[in-house]
Amino acid sequence: MHIHEYQAKDVLRSYGVPVPDGFAAMDADEAKAAAGKLPGPVFVVKAQIHAGGRGKGSFKELGADAGGGVRLARSADEVREHAAQMLNNTLVTVQTGPDGKQVNRLYVEAGSQIDKEFYLSLLVDRATGFTSFVVSTEGGMDIEAVAHETPEKILTLGVDPATGFMPHHGRAVAKALGLTGDLAKQAGALAGKLYTAFMARDMEMLEINPLVLTGDGELRCLDAKIGFDSNALPRHPDIAEMRDETEEDAKEIEASRHDLSYIALDGDIGCMVNGAGLAMGTMDIIKYHGGAPANFLDVGGGATAEKVAAAFKIITADPNVKGILVNIFGGIMRCDVIAEGIITAVKEVGLSVPLVVRLEGTNVAEGKKIIEESGLNVISADDLDDAAQKIVKAVGGSN
Ligand code: GDP
Ligand code: MN
């Protein structure tokens, strides 16, 4: 789960991490009032969306010259003007895709004078099982571009969970950032606080870009992005409350209500599969035959007919879906339960696209019989390869 920048800064502030003072605002008057509570003379007005690249982004309604989603202002009135321009308009950045995202919230913070911008992030390195710092002296810009063009400028430093963060990790981070003396001490302390926050709040990823050196010789986190491990959210009700559903895909929210693993993709073949591995394999083979999956969907092991029906409805409600492939390998999941779920859903919402069904395993005969007797217009398939070819053909793909 992701949260907004202003929420991430609140979390970090509570661990003593240096971040600029600021206030969230939902309308232009609130933004002006927020500026009134800050010392000035420079303020920053920041669009709060779950996507980066805001500074270099532009608003659809305003055109490229009007300014992006991170703007400096020199008075409370100017803050109000920027706020009025940004709110309810659509910010397009490299990370939002061409449709952009509507700005519903702003963050108004004290402006910083920047002498240097760094990059610092923490993430779980699944290969080593360590929590790793990723640091670079090339902050503020697109870190993917740095990784691509000058990978030697990005350093990774793992922390063994058995020892936790030690002073030498702090010194290594400082060295990687090219800092000495008091600044190295600041960097070490900051890295330790970030690590503590990361572990205590079950984060998956914490990115500070940029971490800056200010004119008064202080390190400060100017931007903050946090992703939390969703499986650990029950341990952090205060964080779960920060969820902003307007930032998420509506179909994914509906799926999570039914405890389905669902991820929307940009193809046109809807997939309903049991088991994450089989779902991945199904997506691969669709691609192999020249098609493109519209989603990843794992209905899980012990799904009920109601859950299957909910899953099927989520797929059919997607206007991009031009055909559906159901691929079930019955084990704990029974084929007749899947068949019943599909029939229930089709009775309620209809079916206007081709449906290919491949069932195998527990109660397969019963499952096939239920589908045959329903009179549904189903293209049946014998194995996965056959199923993938048939659905790609049905949606007018290359095979
Ligand atoms: P992003 O574009 O979504 O990553 O948003 P950031 O919060 O990283 O802001 C983008 C850029 O705006 C930063 O890299 C800075 O160069 C600039 N910026 C942000 N806050 C300030 C500030 O307080 N003072 C100055 N001078 N520049 C800032
Ligand atoms: Mn940034």
TrEMBL record:
Residues in ATP-grasp domain copies: 9-264
Cofactor (UniProt): Mg(2+)
Catalytic activities: succinate + ATP + CoA = succinyl-CoA + ADP + phosphate; (S)-malate + ATP + CoA = (S)-malyl-CoA + ADP + phosphate; GTP + succinate + CoA = succinyl-CoA + GDP + phosphate
Positions that bind ATP: 46, 53-55, 109, 112, 117
Record InterPro entries: ATP-grasp, ATP-grasp_succ-CoA_synth-type, ATP_grasp_subdomain_1, Succ-CoA_synthase_bsu_CS, SUCC_ACL_C, Succ_CoA_ligase-like_bsu, Succinyl-CoA_synth-like
Biological process annotations from GO: succinyl-CoA metabolic process; tricarboxylic acid cycle
Biological or metabolic pathway of the protein: One-carbon metabolism; formaldehyde assimilation via serine pathway; Carbohydrate metabolism; tricarboxylic acid cycle; succinate from succinyl-CoA (ligase route): step 1/1
Positions with a binding annotation for substrate: 274, 331-333
Task of the protein: Succinyl-CoA synthetase functions in the citric acid cycle (TCA), coupling the hydrolysis of succinyl-CoA to the synthesis of either ATP or GTP and thus represents the only step of substrate-level phosphorylation in the TCA. The beta subunit provides nucleotide specificity of the enzyme and binds the substrate succinate, while the binding sites for coenzyme A and phosphate are found in the alpha subunit.
Protein family: Belongs to the succinate/malate CoA ligase beta subunit family.
Protein name: Succinate--CoA ligase [ADP-forming] subunit beta
Organism, scientific name: Paracoccus onubensis
Upper taxonomic lineage: Bacteria, Pseudomonadati, Pseudomonadota, Alphaproteobacteria, Rhodobacterales
